[in-house]
Amino acid sequence: MATEAAVSPPAPITSPAQRDYHWLRSFVAGGVAGCCAKSTIAPLDRVKILLQAQNPHYKHLGVVATLRAVPKKEGYLGLYKGNGAMMVRIFPYGAIQFMAFDKYKKLLSKKLGISGHIHRLMAGSMAGMTAVICTYPLDVIRARLAFQVKGYHRYTGIANAFQTIYLKEGGIPGFYRGLTPTIIGMAPYAGFSFFTFGTLKSLGLKHFPELLGRPSSDNAGVLVLKTHVNLLCGGVAGAIAQTISYPLDVARRRMQLGTVLPDSDKCLTLTKTLKYVYNEYGVKNGLYRGLSLNYIRCVPSQAVAFTTYEFMKQTLHLN
Fold first, then answer.
1. Buried b (16+ CB within 10 A) or exposed e, 111-122
2. Considering only CA atoms, which of 37, 6, 16, 4 is closest in space to residue 297?
């Protein structure tokens, strides 16, 4: 994550074996952080997908009404539909994103001489896009499964969804529908998310170290944010990033769902999808439909993600 305020620099990692082990620990820390964050808001994620793509069974309902309607129609486990695919996806996604952020940040600073706040924004954007490209097919599967309603299933599970999309939607390209808006949207989302969190963290530790900081549990020479401050900074970072990138997220979901939607022929490209949603539903009920829910889900999700990663860094001695 963001740089810690170091009282004395930690001992450098020198041997190749140590460097490899450090890479593995960083990967695990990011994966655990991602899984914890998404598990926290899985029901809200399901409702968001149903609202974003105007599911015919719930399109007339709002956020709260949908949260009530899903358990009545599909049982309480219906709120977690698609979460298995999400966990399969989110561990490598979170692992790659957090690990790549640290790597890109060091690359920009040491190799290109880019430092300060701007290198957090650039590293965050690059890390988000890297993670998306590596795990995108799993995101498509998860969206398809989460969009299904009990009694109207097109796919029986993760494996069946993979097989059906591959056979009926053009092979490998079928798994990359909506990749363009996802990458375009991920750049500002991940960039501003890491940028805001890192900036708030560094400013807090610089100007209010005694009030907001504490010694790291694995290295007394490193100052880290207190847990409640970490949660607050992560939540603010998520809210700002989500507001900026939300219309692209709506377009991404509609393109991902593909032939599941009756109007899929109008959502073949990013430009066409944005125009169609705007013309058909407008700004509030189209491009920003479900945003209030996204604030509710995004703030705790990002708060838990950043806080868990900071905790895992200390537990696995990554500081």
1. eeeeeeeebbbb
2. 37
CA distance 3 to 179: 31
Tokens of 16: 């190749």
Query: Quick one: 220 exposed, middle or buried, by C-beta within 10 A (0-12, 13-18, 19+)?
Result: exposed
The backbone torsions φ and ψ at residue 268, rounded to the nearest 5 degrees and listed phi first, read -90, -30
CA dist 4 and 198 (Å) reads 9
Cβ neighbours for 261, distance < 8 A, ≥ 6 positions apart: 53, 54, 254, 267
Closest to 98 (Cα-Cα) out of 18, 29, 195? 29
- Strands, DSSP E only, in the chain? 5-6, 213-215, 222-225
Output the pTM of the full model: 0.71
| Predicted confidence (pLDDT) per residue in 211-233, tens digit | 999 988 877 778 889 999 999 99
Q: Which helix (H) or strand (E) holds 145?
A: helix 117-147
